[in-house]
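Hi P.,

Sorry for the delay on this. The queue was packed all week, but I finally got your sequence through. Input first:
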Amino acid sequence: MQDTNRTFLLYTKLKIFSTKFIRRIRLPAILVVFLVIEFLDELVYGAREASWPLIRNDLGLTYVQIGLILSVPGLFSSLIEPLLGIMGDVWKRRVLILGGGVVFTLSLLWISQVGGFWGLILASSLLSPASGAFVSLSQASLMDAQPERHDQNMARWTFAGSLGVFGGPLVLSLAVALGGDWRALTLGLGIFSAVVLVLAFRFVHPPSAAALPGEAEAGAAPVGFVDGMRNAMRALRRGEVLRWLVLLEFSDLMLDVLYGYLALYLVDVAGLSPQIAALGVAVWTGVGLLGDFLLIPLLERVNGLAYLRVSVVMELLLFPAFLLLDALPLKLVALALLGFFNSGWYSVLMGRLYSAMPGQSGTVMTVGNIAGWFGKLIPLRIGLAAQRFGLDAAMWLLLAGPLALLIGLPGREQRSQSDLSTRMDG
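Then the structure:
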């Protein structure tokens, strides 16, 4: 009975705190909750990527096993998330978001207790689709809130995520400094996830309350699951949709794929300790965070695709410099600039994909995951190349990302037509 009273008291305190927290931010409450969910997801991701040297030593993993852990959960999620995306358009999106949050929290608690490769890959395979339901459908709902401001709201979303990515290596360094390890940190993240879940239960209301963006427009969405699948297949045959899907996958080479191997590169190739490597990752993510913050007002004045083309050229110059430089200070400067100039890649490209599919925000998640079946294999390919040729040689494969964007981004005339179409749709 006392435990029940304590739990109820804790929930009441969290509810009061969350209400005060939301009121201090000048955005609708539900939008703030969605941004906090993205922050949590990327905080978990950032902490794990910076922890790979510690996880590798603790569990005795090889490069191939790390590549499998980075690839297999994503592939498994790509089989489930397309169904979740369709259901997010035609069924109860709130149930999917909150249910995903419960599984997300439990998965983190499981990961903190795993004893080897198989436990980690199984727990990660549960975490990945849970993130799809909890986080990706929250993003879709955020996009539904203001259909005419996809680029700008995606910039806010990306900044919230970058804040989490930046915090991940820092909380890892703090945990190690306090005598903890990656397991204790993952357990703490599981507890934080439970707190965010309370926020979601508090503010993500059923569509009857008109509080969950996207579900109020259910009349514009497919009325059944089969109709939703047909709609997704139809979208995949459109050239404009395919363009943004392909560019999103290639852009990830300089985003999540680079991040996944960055700490290992700094330890195994650059010769840094795991703790200093974590701080090096924080340099990359921290400057990227600044770039994401500056991007929010920039997109109010500058065409997103025009900015993107300039940043792609800068990445093509900076990444070879980062790999070739031997002096650590210069290497870190190049790494920082890499983090700055890849800002906006995901937010602009994803915003354009949402604009190309008006009224189908959940289906965007579906087509993205179908396209991701190719992209999810890339970390494994990098791991195989690193195992055979060395990680220093395998990292050069990541240049395919900015090269693809340089070739595939629409020209000025195509951009004007795309912007006109977006304004008409809005």
